[in-house]
Amino acid sequence: MEHITFLVAVVIITALAFDFTNGFHDTANAMATSIATGALKPKVAVAIAAVLNFAGAFLSVKVATTISGGIVNEKTGLQPSIIFAALVGAILWNLLTWLKGLPSSSSHALYGGLIGATVVGVGIHGVNFTTVVSKILIPAVASPIVAGVASWGATKLAYLITRNGNQKTTTKGFKRGQMFSSSLISLAHGTNDAQKTMGIITLALVSAGALHKGAQPPTWVIVSAGAAIALGTYMGGWRIIRSMGSGLADIKPPQGFASETAAATVILTSSHMGYGLSTTQVCSGGIMGAGLGGPAGKLRWSLVRRMVYTWGLTLPAAATVAGIAAFVADKGDWGVVVVGAALVIGSGAMWMLSRRQPVHADNVNDVTPVEVPAAQTAPGAPTTATATVAA
Amino acid sequence: MQIKWAALGQTAGVSLAITLAVVVVFALGNLALSRREAAAEAGNANSAKGTAALVAAGVCFAACAGVVLYGISLIAGK
Protein backbone atom coordinates (compact mmCIF):
# COMPACT_ATOMS: atom_id res chain seq x y z
CA MET A 1 0.00 0.00 0.00
CA GLU A 2 3.00 2.24 0.58
CA HIS A 3 3.53 2.59 -3.16
CA ILE A 4 -0.12 3.42 -3.86
CA THR A 5 -0.28 6.07 -1.18
CA PHE A 6 2.79 7.89 -2.46
CA LEU A 7 1.55 7.74 -6.03
CA VAL A 8 -1.97 8.81 -5.08
CA ALA A 9 -0.61 11.81 -3.22
CA VAL A 10 1.43 12.75 -6.28
CA VAL A 11 -1.60 12.32 -8.53
CA ILE A 12 -3.73 14.58 -6.32
CA ILE A 13 -1.12 17.33 -6.27
CA THR A 14 -0.57 17.05 -10.02
CA ALA A 15 -4.31 17.09 -10.65
CA LEU A 16 -4.64 20.31 -8.69
CA ALA A 17 -1.67 21.75 -10.60
CA PHE A 18 -3.41 20.87 -13.88
CA ASP A 19 -6.59 22.47 -12.58
CA PHE A 20 -4.62 25.61 -11.84
CA THR A 21 -3.11 25.78 -15.36
CA ASN A 22 -6.57 25.05 -16.74
CA GLY A 23 -7.88 28.09 -14.88
CA PHE A 24 -5.34 30.60 -16.03
CA HIS A 25 -5.23 29.17 -19.52
CA ASP A 26 -8.96 29.64 -19.91
CA THR A 27 -9.57 32.98 -18.22
CA ALA A 28 -9.28 34.44 -21.68
CA ASN A 29 -12.24 32.47 -22.98
CA ALA A 30 -14.75 34.33 -20.90
CA MET A 31 -13.00 37.58 -20.27
CA ALA A 32 -10.72 38.46 -23.20
CA THR A 33 -13.36 40.33 -25.17
CA SER A 34 -14.82 42.04 -22.11
CA ILE A 35 -11.36 43.28 -21.17
CA ALA A 36 -10.60 44.35 -24.74
CA THR A 37 -13.76 46.43 -25.11
CA GLY A 38 -13.39 47.95 -21.65
CA ALA A 39 -16.66 46.42 -20.43
CA LEU A 40 -14.73 45.19 -17.40
CA LYS A 41 -11.44 46.35 -15.95
CA PRO A 42 -8.79 43.62 -16.26
CA LYS A 43 -8.46 42.97 -12.52
CA VAL A 44 -12.22 43.08 -11.99
CA ALA A 45 -12.76 40.70 -14.89
CA VAL A 46 -10.40 38.04 -13.57
CA ALA A 47 -11.85 38.40 -10.07
CA ILE A 48 -15.40 37.84 -11.37
CA ALA A 49 -14.22 34.91 -13.46
CA ALA A 50 -12.45 33.39 -10.46
CA VAL A 51 -15.49 33.67 -8.19
CA LEU A 52 -17.80 32.21 -10.85
CA ASN A 53 -15.42 29.37 -11.63
CA PHE A 54 -15.37 28.53 -7.94
CA ALA A 55 -19.14 28.76 -7.72
CA GLY A 56 -19.49 26.67 -10.86
CA ALA A 57 -17.55 23.85 -9.23
CA PHE A 58 -20.36 23.43 -6.70
CA LEU A 59 -23.22 23.47 -9.19
CA SER A 60 -22.89 19.91 -10.32
CA VAL A 61 -20.74 16.82 -9.80
CA LYS A 62 -22.30 14.66 -12.46
CA VAL A 63 -19.45 14.86 -14.96
CA ALA A 64 -16.99 14.07 -12.20
CA THR A 65 -18.04 10.42 -12.14
CA THR A 66 -16.49 9.75 -15.54
CA ILE A 67 -13.37 11.73 -16.26
CA SER A 68 -12.72 10.56 -19.75
CA GLY A 69 -16.28 10.34 -21.06
CA GLY A 70 -15.56 6.90 -22.46
CA ILE A 71 -12.46 7.87 -24.44
CA VAL A 72 -10.31 5.39 -22.63
CA ASN A 73 -11.62 2.15 -21.29
CA GLU A 74 -11.83 2.88 -17.58
CA LYS A 75 -12.96 -0.68 -16.82
CA THR A 76 -9.56 -2.13 -17.66
CA GLY A 77 -8.36 -0.16 -14.67
CA LEU A 78 -7.06 3.34 -15.06
CA GLN A 79 -3.88 3.10 -13.01
CA PRO A 80 -2.73 6.12 -10.99
CA SER A 81 0.58 6.11 -12.89
CA ILE A 82 -1.31 6.50 -16.16
CA ILE A 83 -3.40 9.35 -14.78
CA PHE A 84 -0.22 10.97 -13.49
CA ALA A 85 1.49 10.71 -16.88
CA ALA A 86 -1.61 12.09 -18.61
CA LEU A 87 -1.62 15.09 -16.29
CA VAL A 88 2.08 15.75 -16.89
CA GLY A 89 1.53 15.80 -20.64
CA ALA A 90 -1.47 18.10 -20.30
CA ILE A 91 0.25 20.55 -17.93
CA LEU A 92 3.39 20.86 -20.05
CA TRP A 93 1.38 21.49 -23.21
CA ASN A 94 -0.80 24.04 -21.42
CA LEU A 95 2.25 25.93 -20.20
CA LEU A 96 3.95 25.87 -23.58
CA THR A 97 0.92 27.27 -25.38
CA TRP A 98 0.47 29.87 -22.64
CA LEU A 99 4.08 30.94 -23.11
CA LYS A 100 3.33 31.42 -26.79
CA GLY A 101 0.13 33.28 -25.97
CA LEU A 102 -1.95 30.74 -27.87
CA PRO A 103 -5.36 29.67 -26.66
CA SER A 104 -5.50 25.90 -26.87
CA SER A 105 -7.96 23.53 -25.33
CA SER A 106 -7.15 22.36 -21.80
CA SER A 107 -9.67 19.56 -22.22
CA HIS A 108 -8.01 18.35 -25.40
CA ALA A 109 -4.65 18.45 -23.62
CA LEU A 110 -6.09 16.26 -20.87
CA TYR A 111 -7.77 13.87 -23.34
CA GLY A 112 -4.57 13.71 -25.38
CA GLY A 113 -2.60 12.97 -22.24
CA LEU A 114 -5.01 10.19 -21.28
CA ILE A 115 -4.86 8.66 -24.75
CA GLY A 116 -1.06 8.75 -24.92
CA ALA A 117 -0.56 7.38 -21.43
CA THR A 118 -3.15 4.65 -21.97
CA VAL A 119 -1.65 3.49 -25.26
CA VAL A 120 1.76 3.15 -23.62
CA GLY A 121 0.58 1.80 -20.28
CA VAL A 122 -2.34 -0.44 -21.26
CA GLY A 123 -2.12 -0.87 -25.01
CA ILE A 124 -3.93 0.43 -28.06
CA HIS A 125 -7.11 -1.48 -27.13
CA GLY A 126 -7.50 0.71 -24.05
CA VAL A 127 -8.60 3.64 -26.21
CA ASN A 128 -12.06 3.87 -27.79
CA PHE A 129 -11.19 5.58 -31.03
CA THR A 130 -14.82 5.70 -32.16
CA THR A 131 -15.63 7.84 -29.15
CA VAL A 132 -12.56 9.97 -29.82
CA VAL A 133 -13.84 10.76 -33.30
CA SER A 134 -17.52 11.24 -32.53
CA LYS A 135 -17.25 12.97 -29.17
CA ILE A 136 -14.05 15.00 -29.59
CA LEU A 137 -12.77 15.38 -33.14
CA ILE A 138 -16.03 16.19 -34.92
CA PRO A 139 -17.27 18.64 -32.27
CA ALA A 140 -13.78 20.16 -32.22
CA VAL A 141 -14.08 21.00 -35.90
CA ALA A 142 -17.78 21.85 -35.90
CA SER A 143 -18.16 23.91 -32.72
CA PRO A 144 -15.84 26.83 -33.56
CA ILE A 145 -17.47 27.05 -36.99
CA VAL A 146 -20.99 27.10 -35.53
CA ALA A 147 -19.94 29.68 -32.93
CA GLY A 148 -18.23 31.70 -35.65
CA VAL A 149 -21.22 31.72 -37.98
CA ALA A 150 -23.64 32.53 -35.14
CA SER A 151 -21.40 35.29 -33.89
CA TRP A 152 -20.92 36.69 -37.41
CA GLY A 153 -24.65 36.84 -37.99
CA ALA A 154 -25.35 38.23 -34.54
CA THR A 155 -22.75 40.95 -35.01
CA LYS A 156 -24.26 41.98 -38.35
CA LEU A 157 -27.75 42.11 -36.83
CA ALA A 158 -26.61 43.97 -33.72
CA TYR A 159 -25.03 46.70 -35.85
CA LEU A 160 -27.99 46.79 -38.20
CA ILE A 161 -30.59 47.16 -35.44
CA THR A 162 -28.76 49.80 -33.46
CA ARG A 163 -27.48 51.83 -36.43
CA ASN A 164 -30.02 54.62 -35.86
CA GLY A 165 -29.71 54.62 -32.09
CA ASN A 166 -27.55 56.89 -30.01
CA GLN A 167 -24.14 55.23 -30.26
CA LYS A 168 -23.11 56.23 -26.77
CA THR A 169 -26.19 54.66 -25.17
CA THR A 170 -26.10 51.49 -27.23
CA THR A 171 -22.37 51.00 -26.65
CA LYS A 172 -22.94 51.28 -22.93
CA GLY A 173 -25.79 48.80 -23.22
CA PHE A 174 -23.67 46.25 -25.07
CA LYS A 175 -20.92 46.63 -22.48
CA ARG A 176 -23.46 45.88 -19.76
CA GLY A 177 -24.63 42.86 -21.71
CA GLN A 178 -21.04 41.67 -21.99
CA MET A 179 -20.79 41.49 -18.22
CA PHE A 180 -23.59 38.95 -18.18
CA SER A 181 -22.53 36.97 -21.22
CA SER A 182 -18.92 36.61 -20.08
CA SER A 183 -20.05 35.72 -16.57
CA LEU A 184 -22.20 32.93 -17.94
CA ILE A 185 -19.21 31.51 -19.81
CA SER A 186 -17.16 31.59 -16.60
CA LEU A 187 -19.83 29.75 -14.68
CA ALA A 188 -20.20 27.09 -17.34
CA HIS A 189 -16.43 26.74 -17.47
CA GLY A 190 -16.14 26.21 -13.72
CA THR A 191 -18.83 23.56 -13.81
CA ASN A 192 -17.28 21.66 -16.68
CA ASP A 193 -13.57 21.91 -16.03
CA ALA A 194 -13.37 21.82 -12.23
CA GLN A 195 -15.36 18.60 -12.41
CA LYS A 196 -12.68 16.95 -14.51
CA THR A 197 -10.15 17.48 -11.75
CA MET A 198 -12.63 16.25 -9.15
CA GLY A 199 -13.12 13.15 -11.26
CA ILE A 200 -9.39 12.51 -11.47
CA ILE A 201 -8.84 12.87 -7.73
CA THR A 202 -11.89 10.76 -6.92
CA LEU A 203 -10.68 8.04 -9.27
CA ALA A 204 -7.25 8.08 -7.67
CA LEU A 205 -8.83 7.75 -4.24
CA VAL A 206 -10.99 4.87 -5.44
CA SER A 207 -7.97 3.07 -6.87
CA ALA A 208 -6.20 3.49 -3.51
CA GLY A 209 -9.16 2.01 -1.70
CA ALA A 210 -9.89 5.22 0.20
CA LEU A 211 -13.29 5.47 -1.45
CA HIS A 212 -15.64 2.79 -2.66
CA LYS A 213 -16.30 2.44 -6.37
CA GLY A 214 -18.84 4.88 -7.79
CA ALA A 215 -18.53 7.22 -4.81
CA GLN A 216 -19.33 10.90 -5.15
CA PRO A 217 -16.37 13.25 -4.78
CA PRO A 218 -15.87 14.15 -1.09
CA THR A 219 -16.39 17.78 -0.10
CA TRP A 220 -12.69 18.53 0.34
CA VAL A 221 -12.11 17.37 -3.24
CA ILE A 222 -14.83 19.70 -4.57
CA VAL A 223 -13.52 22.62 -2.53
CA SER A 224 -9.88 22.11 -3.48
CA ALA A 225 -10.66 21.59 -7.17
CA GLY A 226 -12.82 24.73 -7.18
CA ALA A 227 -10.15 26.67 -5.32
CA ALA A 228 -7.35 25.57 -7.66
CA ILE A 229 -9.24 26.56 -10.81
CA ALA A 230 -10.35 29.84 -9.23
CA LEU A 231 -6.82 30.71 -8.17
CA GLY A 232 -5.51 29.91 -11.64
CA THR A 233 -8.26 32.00 -13.18
CA TYR A 234 -7.45 34.92 -10.91
CA MET A 235 -3.78 34.76 -11.95
CA GLY A 236 -5.12 35.58 -15.39
CA GLY A 237 -3.44 34.09 -18.41
CA TRP A 238 -2.70 37.61 -19.62
CA ARG A 239 -0.70 36.45 -22.61
CA ILE A 240 -3.67 34.53 -23.95
CA ILE A 241 -6.12 37.28 -23.00
CA ARG A 242 -4.10 39.67 -25.13
CA SER A 243 -4.07 37.30 -28.10
CA MET A 244 -7.78 36.62 -27.97
CA GLY A 245 -8.96 40.09 -27.01
CA SER A 246 -6.75 42.27 -29.15
CA GLY A 247 -4.76 39.91 -31.35
CA LEU A 248 -7.43 38.37 -33.57
CA ALA A 249 -9.42 41.48 -34.38
CA ASP A 250 -10.28 44.87 -32.97
CA ILE A 251 -13.34 44.01 -30.95
CA LYS A 252 -15.98 46.62 -30.13
CA PRO A 253 -18.76 46.13 -27.55
CA PRO A 254 -21.47 44.90 -29.99
CA GLN A 255 -18.99 42.36 -31.37
CA GLY A 256 -17.90 41.33 -27.91
CA PHE A 257 -21.49 40.82 -26.85
CA ALA A 258 -22.33 38.86 -29.98
CA SER A 259 -19.29 36.59 -29.72
CA GLU A 260 -19.77 35.93 -26.01
CA THR A 261 -23.46 35.16 -26.47
CA ALA A 262 -22.66 32.79 -29.33
CA ALA A 263 -19.97 31.07 -27.27
CA ALA A 264 -22.15 30.73 -24.18
CA THR A 265 -25.02 29.33 -26.25
CA VAL A 266 -22.89 26.81 -28.11
CA ILE A 267 -21.22 25.67 -24.88
CA LEU A 268 -24.53 25.21 -23.07
CA THR A 269 -26.42 23.51 -25.88
CA SER A 270 -23.63 21.11 -26.75
CA SER A 271 -22.80 20.15 -23.20
CA HIS A 272 -26.52 19.59 -22.75
CA MET A 273 -26.38 17.24 -25.75
CA GLY A 274 -23.37 15.44 -24.30
CA TYR A 275 -20.58 16.68 -26.56
CA GLY A 276 -17.21 17.17 -24.91
CA LEU A 277 -16.39 20.42 -26.54
CA SER A 278 -13.57 22.87 -26.05
CA THR A 279 -14.56 26.17 -24.48
CA THR A 280 -11.39 27.67 -25.89
CA GLN A 281 -12.11 26.78 -29.48
CA VAL A 282 -15.72 27.86 -29.25
CA CYS A 283 -14.79 31.25 -27.83
CA SER A 284 -12.01 31.76 -30.38
CA GLY A 285 -14.44 30.86 -33.16
CA GLY A 286 -16.93 33.35 -31.78
CA ILE A 287 -14.34 36.12 -31.73
CA MET A 288 -13.31 35.33 -35.29
CA GLY A 289 -16.90 35.51 -36.46
CA ALA A 290 -17.42 38.80 -34.64
CA GLY A 291 -14.25 40.21 -36.14
CA LEU A 292 -15.39 39.36 -39.66
CA GLY A 293 -18.94 40.55 -39.04
CA GLY A 294 -17.91 43.91 -37.64
CA PRO A 295 -17.67 47.17 -39.55
CA ALA A 296 -14.02 46.63 -40.35
CA GLY A 297 -14.63 43.02 -41.33
CA LYS A 298 -11.02 42.15 -40.70
CA LEU A 299 -9.17 39.34 -38.99
CA ARG A 300 -5.46 38.90 -38.44
CA TRP A 301 -5.21 35.69 -40.40
CA SER A 302 -1.64 34.87 -39.40
CA LEU A 303 -2.74 34.48 -35.79
CA VAL A 304 -5.86 32.56 -36.84
CA ARG A 305 -3.66 30.14 -38.75
CA ARG A 306 -1.29 29.63 -35.84
CA MET A 307 -4.21 29.03 -33.48
CA VAL A 308 -5.72 26.41 -35.74
CA TYR A 309 -2.36 24.62 -36.08
CA THR A 310 -2.07 24.62 -32.29
CA TRP A 311 -5.53 23.11 -31.94
CA GLY A 312 -4.55 20.34 -34.31
CA LEU A 313 -1.32 19.71 -32.42
CA THR A 314 -2.79 19.72 -28.90
CA LEU A 315 -4.06 16.15 -28.84
CA PRO A 316 -1.01 14.44 -30.40
CA ALA A 317 1.52 16.62 -28.56
CA ALA A 318 0.02 16.03 -25.13
CA ALA A 319 -0.34 12.36 -26.03
CA THR A 320 3.34 12.07 -26.95
CA VAL A 321 4.59 13.74 -23.76
CA ALA A 322 2.18 11.67 -21.67
CA GLY A 323 3.25 8.49 -23.45
CA ILE A 324 6.90 9.11 -22.58
CA ALA A 325 5.93 10.02 -19.02
CA ALA A 326 3.85 6.85 -18.70
CA PHE A 327 6.78 4.74 -19.88
CA VAL A 328 9.11 6.23 -17.26
CA ALA A 329 6.57 6.43 -14.43
CA ASP A 330 5.70 2.78 -14.93
CA LYS A 331 9.21 1.79 -13.75
CA GLY A 332 8.28 2.35 -10.13
CA ASP A 333 8.61 5.03 -7.52
CA TRP A 334 11.90 6.34 -8.90
CA GLY A 335 10.25 6.69 -12.31
CA VAL A 336 7.44 8.74 -10.79
CA VAL A 337 10.03 10.93 -9.08
CA VAL A 338 11.91 11.42 -12.35
CA VAL A 339 8.72 12.41 -14.20
CA GLY A 340 7.72 14.70 -11.33
CA ALA A 341 11.13 16.37 -11.40
CA ALA A 342 10.90 16.79 -15.17
CA LEU A 343 7.48 18.41 -14.74
CA VAL A 344 8.74 20.86 -12.11
CA ILE A 345 11.86 21.75 -14.09
CA GLY A 346 9.94 22.10 -17.35
CA SER A 347 7.27 24.30 -15.76
CA GLY A 348 9.89 26.39 -14.00
CA ALA A 349 11.83 26.89 -17.22
CA MET A 350 8.73 28.07 -19.07
CA TRP A 351 7.85 30.44 -16.27
CA MET A 352 11.39 31.89 -16.37
CA LEU A 353 11.09 32.34 -20.14
CA SER A 354 7.79 34.15 -19.69
CA ARG A 355 9.51 36.68 -17.40
CA ARG A 356 11.52 37.92 -20.35
CA GLN A 357 8.39 39.39 -21.89
CA PRO A 358 5.83 39.78 -19.16
CA VAL A 359 2.20 40.41 -19.97
CA HIS A 360 0.03 41.52 -17.08
CA ALA A 361 -3.13 43.39 -16.20
CA ASP A 362 -1.62 46.78 -17.00
CA ASN A 363 -0.40 46.08 -20.51
CA VAL A 364 -2.83 43.37 -21.54
CA ASN A 365 -4.69 45.55 -24.03
CA ASP A 366 -1.59 46.73 -25.87
CA VAL A 367 -1.69 45.53 -29.40
CA THR A 368 1.18 44.11 -31.26
CA PRO A 369 3.14 46.75 -33.17
CA VAL A 370 4.06 44.21 -35.81
CA GLU A 371 0.56 43.54 -36.95
CA VAL A 372 -1.28 46.82 -36.47
CA PRO A 373 -0.69 50.34 -37.67
CA ALA A 374 1.53 52.27 -35.28
CA ALA A 375 -1.27 54.71 -34.51
CA GLN A 376 -3.19 52.08 -32.59
CA THR A 377 -0.28 50.96 -30.47
CA ALA A 378 -0.36 52.15 -26.91
CA PRO A 379 2.60 54.40 -26.19
CA GLY A 380 5.37 52.81 -24.21
CA ALA A 381 4.46 49.26 -25.13
CA PRO A 382 7.62 47.18 -24.98
CA THR A 383 8.11 46.42 -28.65
CA THR A 384 9.98 43.15 -28.40
CA ALA A 385 7.68 41.81 -25.74
CA THR A 386 4.45 42.34 -27.61
CA ALA A 387 5.97 41.25 -30.88
CA THR A 388 7.14 37.96 -29.48
CA VAL A 389 3.89 37.17 -27.78
CA ALA A 390 2.15 37.43 -31.08
CA ALA A 391 4.96 35.83 -33.01
CA MET B 1 -18.51 3.83 -36.59
CA GLN B 2 -21.79 5.59 -36.18
CA ILE B 3 -21.97 9.33 -36.02
CA LYS B 4 -25.24 10.97 -35.15
CA TRP B 5 -25.27 13.67 -37.77
CA ALA B 6 -28.86 14.59 -36.97
CA ALA B 7 -28.03 15.32 -33.33
CA LEU B 8 -25.00 17.32 -34.38
CA GLY B 9 -27.01 19.31 -36.89
CA GLN B 10 -29.74 19.90 -34.35
CA THR B 11 -27.25 21.19 -31.78
CA ALA B 12 -25.74 23.51 -34.36
CA GLY B 13 -29.13 24.77 -35.50
CA VAL B 14 -30.44 25.37 -32.00
CA SER B 15 -27.25 27.20 -31.01
CA LEU B 16 -27.45 29.40 -34.06
CA ALA B 17 -31.13 30.24 -33.52
CA ILE B 18 -30.75 31.04 -29.82
CA THR B 19 -27.71 33.23 -30.37
CA LEU B 20 -29.39 35.25 -33.09
CA ALA B 21 -32.61 35.57 -31.10
CA VAL B 22 -30.88 36.75 -27.92
CA VAL B 23 -28.67 39.25 -29.69
CA VAL B 24 -31.55 40.63 -31.75
CA VAL B 25 -33.78 41.03 -28.70
CA PHE B 26 -30.96 42.59 -26.71
CA ALA B 27 -30.12 44.98 -29.55
CA LEU B 28 -33.80 45.96 -29.80
CA GLY B 29 -33.83 46.64 -26.07
CA ASN B 30 -30.74 48.72 -26.49
CA LEU B 31 -32.32 50.67 -29.32
CA ALA B 32 -35.45 51.25 -27.26
CA LEU B 33 -33.35 52.53 -24.40
CA SER B 34 -31.61 54.94 -26.70
CA ARG B 35 -35.02 56.16 -27.99
CA ARG B 36 -36.11 56.72 -24.42
CA GLU B 37 -33.00 58.78 -23.76
CA ALA B 38 -33.64 60.80 -26.88
CA ALA B 39 -37.13 61.53 -25.58
CA ALA B 40 -35.75 62.46 -22.16
CA GLU B 41 -33.26 64.86 -23.72
CA ALA B 42 -36.08 66.47 -25.64
CA GLY B 43 -37.66 67.09 -22.24
CA ASN B 44 -40.58 64.70 -22.51
CA ALA B 45 -39.41 61.49 -20.92
CA ASN B 46 -42.92 60.77 -19.72
CA SER B 47 -44.56 61.27 -23.07
CA ALA B 48 -46.34 58.28 -24.56
CA LYS B 49 -43.38 57.67 -26.82
CA GLY B 50 -40.84 57.78 -24.00
CA THR B 51 -42.86 55.45 -21.81
CA ALA B 52 -43.49 53.00 -24.64
CA ALA B 53 -39.75 52.88 -25.34
CA LEU B 54 -38.99 52.21 -21.69
CA VAL B 55 -41.54 49.39 -21.53
CA ALA B 56 -40.17 47.88 -24.75
CA ALA B 57 -36.64 47.96 -23.36
CA GLY B 58 -37.82 46.36 -20.14
CA VAL B 59 -39.56 43.54 -22.02
CA CYS B 60 -36.49 42.90 -24.16
CA PHE B 61 -34.06 42.79 -21.26
CA ALA B 62 -36.42 40.62 -19.21
CA ALA B 63 -36.57 38.15 -22.09
CA CYS B 64 -32.76 38.03 -22.20
CA ALA B 65 -32.62 37.54 -18.42
CA GLY B 66 -35.04 34.64 -18.80
CA VAL B 67 -32.75 32.95 -21.32
CA VAL B 68 -29.76 33.44 -18.99
CA LEU B 69 -31.67 31.90 -16.07
CA TYR B 70 -32.64 28.96 -18.25
CA GLY B 71 -28.97 28.60 -19.18
CA ILE B 72 -27.95 28.52 -15.52
CA SER B 73 -30.62 25.94 -14.76
CA LEU B 74 -29.16 23.80 -17.57
CA ILE B 75 -25.69 24.03 -16.04
CA ALA B 76 -26.92 23.23 -12.56
CA GLY B 77 -29.34 20.50 -13.55
CA LYS B 78 -26.78 18.43 -15.36
UniProtKB/TrEMBL annotation, chain A:
Pfam families attached to this UniProt entry: PHO4
Q: Where in the cell is it found?
A: Membrane
Q: What is its main location?
A: membrane
Q: How does it sit in the membrane?
A: Multi-pass membrane protein
**Which UniProt keywords are listed?**
Membrane, Phosphate transport, Transmembrane, Transmembrane helix, Transport
Coiled coil location: none
TM ranges:
44-65, 77-96, 108-129, 136-154, 220-241, 308-328, 334-353
InterPro entries linked to this entry: Phos_transporter
PANTHER family under this entry? LOW-AFFINITY INORGANIC PHOSPHATE TRANSPORTER-RELATED, PHOSPHATE TRANSPORTER
Q: What family does this belong to? A: Belongs to the inorganic phosphate transporter (PiT) (TC 2.A.20) family.
Q: What name goes with this protein?
A: Phosphate transporter
What organism, scientifically named, is this protein from?
A: Kitasatospora paracochleata
Q: What broad taxonomic lineage does this protein's source fall under?
A: Bacteria, Bacillati, Actinomycetota, Actinomycetes, Kitasatosporales
Automatic annotation (TrEMBL), chain B:
Q: Which UniProt keywords apply?
A: Membrane, Transmembrane, Transmembrane helix
Looking at the UniProt entry, the stretches that span the membrane are 12-33, 53-76
Q: What is this protein called?
A: Secreted protein
Q: Where is the organism placed in the taxonomic lineage, from the top?
A: Bacteria, Bacillati, Actinomycetota, Actinomycetes, Kitasatosporales
